[in-house]
Amino acid sequence: MTRRTRARTSPREKTRPVARAPRAVERPSAPARVRSGKTTPLRSAAILTMVAGLIATVALPAYAAWQPEEEPQTLQQMSADDAQTLVVASDVSGMQLERSSYAATTAEEIEKKKAAEAAAERARARAAATPVTTLSSVDLSMTAPGSGEVRWPLSGYRLGRGLGDSGYHQGVDLLAGCGTPLFAAAGGVVRVSQESFGGYGVAVTIDHVINGQRVSTLYGHMTYGSRVVQSGQTVAPGQLIGVVGSTGSSTACHLHFEVHVNGSVVDPYGWLQVNAS
C-alpha cells in the first residue's frame, strides 16, 4: 500500500503547471542603434570629401592654364564740332574727378578757336611771303607834309574800314601799298615798338600831350624789320617811324591807325580831319 500510494499522483498534481522562472524581456540594444545611426553620415561625409578632392585636383590645373587677359578698358566719347567733348579713362582705379581731368568745349568756342588758328596760320604764311624791308630805298630824313602840331600819318591812301566796323574795329584802315613810308601823327614818346604786338603784328604806339590832353596813337600791320624808332625814344611831328605792311591779323597792305584821348577810343579819321594840317 505504501508503494502504490507513493507511485501514484493525484490528478490535481498532474495538471498543476510547472512553475518556471520569468524570462527577461529582450529589448534592442541602444548602443547598437546609436552606432548604426552614426555610421551612415560619417561614411557619406568621407565620400563627399574624396569626390571634392578629385574635382579640385582636376579643376585647379585647368584654371591655372586659363587666365583672362587684363585689357585696359577705356570709354571715350569724342564729339563732333557741334557737341561737347568728354574723355574719361575707366582703367585708372581710385582716380578722383577734378576740373583739370576733363575738358568740355561748346561748339561756339570750337568755332572761335578754329577762326583764331586760321587767322594765325594766314599771318604766318603772309609773314613768310613778305620780304623783310631794309629801308635802303627810303629816305630816313623825310617827314610828313605839313607844318602843324598834328600831321597825317600817310601822304597818300584810300579809306578802308572805319571805327566800329564789324562791331569791334577800334581804328581806321588807310589802304596803301606795302613799303609806303609811315609818319608820327604828332610829337611824343614811343611807348611800344614791337615786331609782334598781338593782332596788330609789327606796331608802334606813341604817347602825346596835345592841347592839354593825353593822346596816344597806334600804327599797326607795319612791315617786318621796318621800325626805325624804339621804346622810350622821343619823336617829332611827322617823323618817319616805318613803312606800311600786312602783318598780324591783316589780309592786305594797309595802316591800321588808332587814336585814344584820355584813355578813351575816338574816331581817328575824324580826329585827323579836325587837328591835322
Molecular structure report:
- The chain is α+β, with helices and mostly antiparallel strands.
- The chain has a domain at 105-277: Distorted Sandwich (Glucose Permease (Domain IIA)).
- The chain has five helices and twelve strands.
- The strands form three sheets. Strands 3, 4, 6, 7, 8, 9, 11 and 12 form an eight-stranded antiparallel beta sheet that branches.
- Strand 11 (254-261) and strand 12 (264-266) form a beta hairpin.
- The model is unreliable at 1-15, 34-38 and 73-95 (pLDDT under 50).
Question: In terms of topology, how is this protein built?
Answer:
Blueprint lengths: L1 H6 L3 H5 L14 H36 L8 E4 L8 E4 L17 H23 L28 E2 L12 E4 L5 E3 L4 E7 L7 E9 L2 E10 L11 E2 L4 E4 L10 E8 L2 E3 L1 H8 L2
Antiparallel strand pairs: 1-2, 3-4, 4-11, 5-10, 6-7, 6-9, 7-8, 8-11, 11-12
What is the name of the CATH architecture of the domain at 105-277?
Distorted Sandwich
- Which shape, going by the Cα principal axes? rod-shaped
Computed over alpha carbons, the radius of gyration is 56 Å
Instruction: Outline the low-pLDDT stretches.
Output: 1-15, 34-38, 73-95
Tally of DSSP β-strands: 12
Any idea of the CATH topology of the domain at 105-277?
Glucose Permease (Domain IIA)
Order of helices and strands: HHHEEHEEEEEEEEEEH
CATH class descriptor name of the domain at 105-277: Mainly Beta
Tell me the major beta sheet.
Answer: 8 strands, antiparallel
**Number of helical runs?**
5
CATH superfamily of the domain at 105-277: Glucose Permease (Domain IIA)
The secondary-structure class comes to alpha+beta
Q: Roughly what fraction of the amino acids lie in strands?
A: 15-25%
What is the terminal-to-terminal distance?
199 Å
Instruction: Write down the overall mean pLDDT.
Output: 74
Helix content: 25-40%
